[in-house]
């Protein structure tokens, strides 16, 4: 049996998280309320855009295609998510609750940065 590299495992895990998150955002109505509460213009459009981008980029990462671009886009999305949804927790509830609520976001950010650093593969240009 062929052993998979650590990078492959990270690609599968990151891709899985973003694909499932994107699908849930498209199918669970509660996310419309969440996006509306963030103060973004056109929250429904942002919701669909983010969900589709997460699904597409997650699929590209699993496929090991356009890794540099896909990870860069997802890094931007995760940083925006931390800024919009987790930093208010830090300000209102403290560091412990922030650390708890942001744990998946921070782990995904670290994994995305590792993939971005190691990425090669096909590029658009």
From TrEMBL:
The keyword Transmembrane helix applies. Keywords: Membrane, Transmembrane, Transmembrane helix. It is found in: Membrane. Pfam families: DoxX. It is a multi-pass membrane protein. The chain crosses the membrane at residues 9-26, 46-66, 73-91, 97-116. This is DoxX family protein.
């Amino acid at each position: 049996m062929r052993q998979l590299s650590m990078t492959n495992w990270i690609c599968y895990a990151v891709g899985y998280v973003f694909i499932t998150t994107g699908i849930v955002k498209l199918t669970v109505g509660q996310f419309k309320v969440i996006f509306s509460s963030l103060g973004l213009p056109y929250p429904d459009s942002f919701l669909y855009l983010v969900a589709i981008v997460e699904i597409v980029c997650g699929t590209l990462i699993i496929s090991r295609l356009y890794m540099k671009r896909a990870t860069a886009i997802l890094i931007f999305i995760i940083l925006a998510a931390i800024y919009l949804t987790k930093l208010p927790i830090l300000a209102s509830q403290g560091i412990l609750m922030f650390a708890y609520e942001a744990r998946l976001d921070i782990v995904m950010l670290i994994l995305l940065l590792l993939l971005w650093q190691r990425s090669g593969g096909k590029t658009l240009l």
